[in-house]
Structure of Zinc-binding dehydrogenase:
Amino acid sequence: MRALTFDPDLTFTDVPDPVPAPSQALIRVAAFSLNFGEIAYRSANVPPGYVPGWDAAGVVVRAAADGSGPAAGTRVVTFGWSGAWAELRTVDTADMAAVPEAVDLGTAAALPVAGVTALQAVRRLGEVAGRRVLVTGASGGVGRYAVQLAARAGAHVVASAGSAARAEGLRELGAAEIVLGPENLDGRVYGVLDNVGGRQLAEAFYRLEDDGVVMAIGRAARETTVIDFELAGARSARGRIENFNVAAPFGADLAHLLGLLAAGDLDAQVGWRGPWEEAGKAADALLARQVAGKAVVDL
Ligand SMILES: NC(=O)c1ccc[n+]([C@@H]2O[C@H](COP(=O)([O-])OP(=O)(O)OC[C@H]3O[C@@H](n4cnc5c(N)ncnc54)[C@H](OP(=O)(O)O)[C@@H]3O)[C@@H](O)[C@H]2O)c1
């Protein structure tokens, strides 16, 4: 089958078809989406024929041998830590969900890692209704879902972006305030969903309420974070930072997000969409902060 691999740039390669384990279904991929992490942090130490890629949507070709999961012919969205950037992928049935007719497969492909990360991180903040929540990197894939899901949970959302142009559309998604960097935030916040790390994480931490919490999701800035805890202590009595890592299985959370999409209560924010011959351009645009939300690649 045809697959996209790093060699070191994105290149088409012929690789053997994947063989499903008993708990896995075989999927014909229709579309996948790109994530910052799988491009910026790609590993050079991978075996020959290794196919990268986390998020893909498509159609079940062969149901799982153990009887779990959807039947052949079902449209599904899928997550796994490899294998999405290919014509066929194998996926554990616990990491997929059936896509409603109202949702196109390319839109569904924009959901897995970014959408489930935002959903789980908002949940981890606890009760946010009526509380101020800052989202850094709000213009990106995780950020645009986080703004929507925190606003749906009743938070007063402050969306932080790198420029007014990058912030376009964030108010429509539910942001009550826009700031160009956490250093420009007036007052304090209860929660922070931090996708950027480095200086932005430190500035956000300094602005926590006494019992506030930062979910340290990402470090898109690729900077080391330096925090002056004595300075922070003067402002927030018990403010804390929690390490956040998205947790599998994804199936139930994907089904929840698909329900929101189908009802028109969530927008996948696809900022780039094109054929997989142009996936390299999409990857470059994503790292250069030129994609508003998700980049989706059609096969
Ligand atoms: N812990 C987990 O489980 C988990 C899960 C998913 C993602 N992540 C991480 O979360 C972060 C965000 O992921 P994503 O998929 O939302 O990425 P993305 O779509 O590329 O968005 C990242 C955002 O960060 C901002 N940013 C600030 N400085 C940047 C810089 N120097 N380079 C690139 N972006 C910069 C950009 O906003 P402006 O241009 O507006 O400044 C951009 O929109 C990444 O670090 C990713 O690896 C972690």
